[in-house]
Design goal:
This protein is α+β, with helices and mostly antiparallel strands and 140 residues long. It contains 5 helices and 5 strands; from the N terminus they run H-H-E-E-E-E-H-E-H-H. Helix 1 crosses helix 2.
Length: 140
């Protein structure tokens, strides 16, 4: 039997592997599933080299990706291309986050923490009598 050579499954160098953007984001552990990664790209939460793109975009080394993760926004540069998901220590070697992005995320984190001091949460939920009083104040 003649075996067919598949470039995606071979163990060749990073330059010859062609990997979709959504698959790489999943492999680099930015999103828990490929479906979530696909939805984020389709929803415009991921920009490839400054432009909105499709999940099927083939990524290249040195590409700049801007992505949203929760309330944070990261700007990363692709260092390695893989198609299989690996452990977190390996996944962190696939990209490099820009210094400006790190500083902006830290500043936003501090702002969120400071903002929580101005909107304190009560220790417990109001009981029925307190809820009625709150509704009476709101309606009058």
């Amino acid at each position: 039997m003649v075996s067919k050579s598949n470039t995606r499954n071979s163990t060749s160098t990073d330059e010859t592997i062609s990997v979709r953007l959504d698959k790489w984001l999943w492999a680099a552990r930015f999103y828990k599933t490929r479906a979530i990664a696909r939805d984020m790209v389709q929803g415009g939460k991921v920009h490839y080299n400054g432009q909105r793109t499709k999940p099927s975009k083939i990524i290249e080394l040195g590409a700049q990706i801007k992505l949203a993760q929760g309330v944070d926004e990261k700007i990363i540069t692709v260092l390695k291309i893989v198609e299989k998901r690996a452990g977190a220590p390996i996944a962190q070697t696939l990209y490099e986050e820009s210094q400006a992005s790190i500083e902006k995320r830290e500043a936003n984190s501090i702002a969120r923490k400071n903002n929580s001091f101005f909107a304190p949460h009560p220790d417990r939920k109001p009981d029925k009598k307190q809820r009625r009083e709150l509704l009476k104040m709101k309606s009058s």
